[in-house]
Amino acid sequence: MRTLHIQRYLITGLLTVVPLWITFLVFRFIASLLAQFGAPLIGAAFHALSTVFPGAAALFAEQWLISAIGFAATLLALYLIGWISNRVFGQRILAGLDALMERIPLVQSVYSGTKKLMAMLQNKPNGTQRVVLIDFPSPELKTIGFVTRVFADASGREMASVYVPTTPNPTGGYLEIVPVDKLTATDWSVDQAMAFVLSVGAVAPDAPFPATSPVPPRGE
C-alpha cells in the first residue's frame, strides 16, 4: 500500500512539474534569443560606464545583468518599431528600407521571401483554413501545418503549400505540397498553433482540433 502511495505521489509530482519545466524552457529559449540582440550594445555601454565609474566595474561585468537589460531593451525596441510602423513617417521609412533591401543581391531574395511569409500568416488564404493537420511524416501520423498558398496543378486539382514548423524552434521546418482534400481543418488561430509548437504540445486549447473534417475545395 505504501508503495502505491509513493508511486501515485511521484506521478502526480511529475505531471505537475513537467508542464512548468517545458514552459520554463520555452520562455528561456525565447528570452535568450531576445537578449542576444541587445546584449552586445548593452555590454559596450557598460564597458564605457565602468571606466567612468570604476567602483561599479564588477557589477557592469555581470553577464546576467547584461542579458536582463538586453532582453528589456529588445522588447522596448520592438514596441517602438511597432509604434513607429503605424505612423505615416514610419511607413515612409519602412518603404525606403524595403526599396534598399530589394536592391541588394542575395539579401533581396531572403528579405522578400521572409516578408511575404509574415504577411501571409497574418491573412487567411482564400478557400481554406490557415492552420491545418496533414499526414506527416507518415499516413498514420498527423502534424500541425500552416497553409501559405492554395493553387491548382496542371490537371486542375487544388493543391496547398503547407509549412510544417519544427518544435520548439519554429523557424526551421518543412515545406509540403498537399492536395487540399487531404488537409484536415482546425479551428485554431495562428497564435494558438504557435503556442502549441513552442510548448512542445503542452499549451493547447481546451478542445484540441474540434474540426476534424477535410478542408472543402474552393467554391463549395
From TrEMBL:
Keyword terms: Membrane, Transmembrane, Transmembrane helix
Transmembrane segments: 6-27, 39-58, 64-84
Keyword Repeat applies: no
Keyword hit for Transmembrane: yes
Protein name in the entry: DUF502 domain-containing protein
